[in-house]
Write a structure and sequence with these properties.
The complex is a heterodimer of chains A (557) and B (104). Chain A is α+β, with helices and mostly antiparallel strands and 557 residues long. Helices cover 39% and strands 17% of the residues of chain A. Chain A has 4 domains: 104 residues, Alpha-Beta Complex (Sulfite Reductase Hemoprotein, domain 2); 158 residues, Sulfite Reductase Hemoprotein, domain 1 (2-Layer Sandwich); 96 residues, Sulfite Reductase Hemoprotein, domain 2 (Alpha-Beta Complex), CATH 3.90.480; 133 residues, Sulfite Reductase Hemoprotein, domain 1 (2-Layer Sandwich), CATH 3.30.413.10. In chain A, strand 14 and strand 15 form a beta hairpin. Chain B is α+β, with helices and mostly antiparallel strands and 104 residues long. Chain B has one domain. Chain B contains 2 helices and 5 strands, in the order βββαββα. Chain B has a 5-stranded antiparallel sheet. Classes of the chains: A alpha+beta (557), B alpha+beta (104).
Chain lengths: 557, 104
């Protein structure tokens, strides 16, 4: 993985000391809140309902054991013994004292981490496929390009005060696991007919109050043009993006109002002027960054096949976990392990300090010291020998991290919601917990198959509800919580925005409504191989409306 | 008139606090000073602004409360959650400050 050079170390350290001075001046009263607020936000410090919240960047979701141990240490020393992994592949601490934040950032810097650009109208943490560098279906590892974008966008003077925040995601496979079509820029790494590496470029996707699927404005952009073309897009956005209305300030609105064709033309004009400037990426630089992400030397471990078959026969729970949480690796003797942070009835994305330590230990002993955070709020061990799956599973069981539900109905994305968030209108976590408990039986989950439920506690859609197969949006109506259900959303290579199915449900009725939807699906699917999403796309919303509202148009309106 | 209290977040650690009758910022809503008439509300608003200007607290707001069986309860759910903590057990030793009877 990427290691800081001297410049990186000096830069991050100087920012910590700068922020320490700012915090001291704030606490002494020398700086007023109005002046301090943008400074703390630039360093990832928010004010939420109960306390400050610190959002720490995990670039493209990649961590070493040493870094994970530091996250555990911070949870233990400065917080309440846990952290929350987010849909942006970051981690949030919910209870840090403002006075401690410079020390926290100092400790993070010691393991090459920071909280810069995790807030504000700048280019945020670049996200990537959590199986990057390991997936069997990958064309190339997207992380070197994500790292190049990170370096280019860090305190970029031209793009530090954009009309609104800006999110870039990169995937390296046909199967999109990074939800690139709901990002401001989505990059799909691919090869052309001559075997050259480049990108399909998508622009103007996003969720929030105006969900939009990104438009593809380039089918193939050669890799050396990554920064010049991205700069061209940013320039067009910076110039023409709306600054008069924050709800219309994202690039998706500009794309929508300008039209993809015209926007693409404007980008190409800028690009023509930038193409052969210093922004052109030298092959040597791409190679230099790529070496940081070279895959570990994976020795043949063919003995794993026999041991795995034996263990699976003797332990059905282990077998279920392997079936659900282990995906094929590009090396046949290895697998990619999803460590579920969705225990049945638990809080999606939360991990205790002890669990973080356990994952760090396991990664160090068995998984080449590599950990990923997925945008689905789970942790990943990307390189695991099949021969080591059994001891890893045992260790995960001890840590309470062996829930076999990756991709199933209880693998729910949920934002912090009104239990923590100052922007939320309704709670997300208790709703997720109740649904998880209702459907928690392994046999029932297996019967239902792949089904992604995503819950947001407000229209900002941090819980990605628009692209949930079943999406739940919490709203406040007459002082009470109400949950609007959307169906048919998807955040993969066939991205779709979910459709509102009808009137909302009160908190005590929402799990029953989900059960009605699930039972309707089970009753109408062609066979067990037809997933919920496939069935929904085949039959449309009507059978679900009928089941939920008795076919009454008035009820469903 | 609906009863009101003054709440904010303490500058140094961000923890939710309420103004008590002695002018101290306390961590329990139940100890908050209750404004029952317009003049008292005006005084609370002025106190909140002063505390903000003095860099003692941030996000100072006067919020509606009601007394239920002798216990103060904010009218808005957002404020109930602020006052009682996350409505869920969320960490070792923090079993959901609201307890099992958290009233949505």
């Amino acid at each position: 993985m990427y290691r800081y050079d001297e410049f990186d170390h000096a830069f991050v350290s100087s920012r910590v000391e700068q922020f320490r001075d700012q915090v001291e001046r704030r606490l002494s009263g020398e700086l007023a809140e109005d002046a301090f607020k943008p400074l703390r936000l630039m360093n990832g410090v928010y004010l939420q309902l109960h306390a400050y919240m610190l959002r720490v960047a995990i670039p493209y979701g990649t961590l070493s054991s040493r870094q994970m141990r530091m996250l555990a240490h911070i949870a233990r020393k400065y917080d309440r013994g846990y952290g929350h992994f987010t849909t942006r592949q970051n981690i949030q601490y919910n209870w840090p004292r403002l006075s401690d934040t410079p020390d926290i950032l100092d400790e993070l810097a010691s393991v090459e981490m920071h909280a810069l650009q995790t807030s504000g109208n700048c280019i945020r943490n670049v996200t990537a496929d959590h199986f990057a560098g390991a997936a069997a279906d990958e064309v190339a590892d997207p992380r070197p390009y994500a790292e190049i974008l990170r370096q280019w966008s860090s305190v970029h003077p031209e793009f530090s005060f954009l009309p609104r925040k800006f999110k870039i995601a990169v995937t390296g496979a046909e199967r999109d696991r990074a939800a690139i079509q709901v990002h401001d820029i989505g990059l799909h790494l691919k090869k052309d007919d001559n075997g050259r590496i480049g990108f399909a470029v998508y622009v103007g996707g996003g969720q929030g109050r105006t969900p939009m699927i990104a438009k593809k404005i380039r089918d193939f952009l050669p890799e050396e043009d990554l920064l010049s073309y991205t700069t061209a897009i940013m320039r067009v956005y910076n110039l023409h993006g709306r600054r008069d209305n924050k709800y219309k300030a994202r690039i998706k609105i500009l794309v929508h109002e300008t039209g993809a064709e015209e926007l693409s033309r404007q980008v190409e004009v800028e690009f023509a002027a930038l193409k052969d400037t210093e922004l052109k990426l030298p092959e040597a630089d791409i190679q230099a960054i790529s070496t940081y992400f070279a895959p570990p030397a994976l020795a043949p471990r063919a003995e794993g096949w026999e041991s795995l078959a034996r263990w699976k026969k003797t332990d059905p729970e282990f077998s279920r976990w392997v079936h659900q949480n282990v995906q094929p690796h590009k090396h046949p003797d290895y697998g990619m392990v999803t460590i579920s942070l969705k225990p049945i009835g638990g809080i999606p994305g939360d991990a205790t300090d002890a669990q973080m330590e356990a994952v760090a230990d396991i990664a160090e002993e068995y998984a080449f010291d590599e950990i990923r955070v997925s945008h689905e709020q789970n942790l990943i061990l990307p390189h695991v020998a099949l021969a080591d799956l059994e001891p890893i599973y045992r260790a995960l069981v001890v840590a309470g991290l062996a829930t076999a539900n990756a991709g199933l109905i209880t693998d729910i994305i949920a934002c912090p919601g009104l239990d923590y968030c100052a922007l939320a209108n309704a709670r997300s976590i208790p709703v997720a917990q109740e649904i998880s408990t209702r459907f928690g039986a392994p046999e029932r989950q297996a019967e239902i198959g792949e089904l992604k439920i995503k819950i947001s506690g407000c229209i900002n859609a941090c819980g990605h509800h628009h692209v949930g197969h079943i999406g739940l949006l919490g709203v406040e109506k007459k002082g009470a919580e109400l949950y609007q259900i959307t169906l048919g959303g998807s955040g993969d290579e066939n991205t779709s925005i979910g459709e509102i199915i009808g009137r909302g449900f009160e908190p005590e009725k929402v799990t029953d409504a989900i059960e009605t939807i699930v039972d309707t699906y089970l009753g109408l699917r062609n066979d067990k191989s037809e997933t919920f999403l496939e069935a929904y796309r085949r039959v449309g919303p009507q059978p679900f409306k009928d089941a939920l509202y008795g076919g009454s148009a008035q009820e469903a309106a | 008139m609906v009863d009101k209290v003054l709440t904010a977040n303490r500058l140094s650690d961000g923890i939710s606090v309420w103004l008590d009758a002695s002018g101290n910022w306390v961590e329990s809503l139940q100890q908050a000073f209750i404004a029952r008439h317009a003049e008292a509300v005006t005084a609370l608003e002025a106190t909140g602004k002063l505390a903000f200007d003095d860099n003692k607290v941030v996000d100072a707001n006067v919020v509606d409360v009601e007394e239920v069986n002798g216990t103060l309860r904010p009218v808005r759910m957002r404020e109930r959650i602020r006052a009682e903590g996350p409505s869920i057990p969320y960490a070792a030793g923090y079993n959901g400050l609201a307890g099992p009877n958290f009233a949505a």
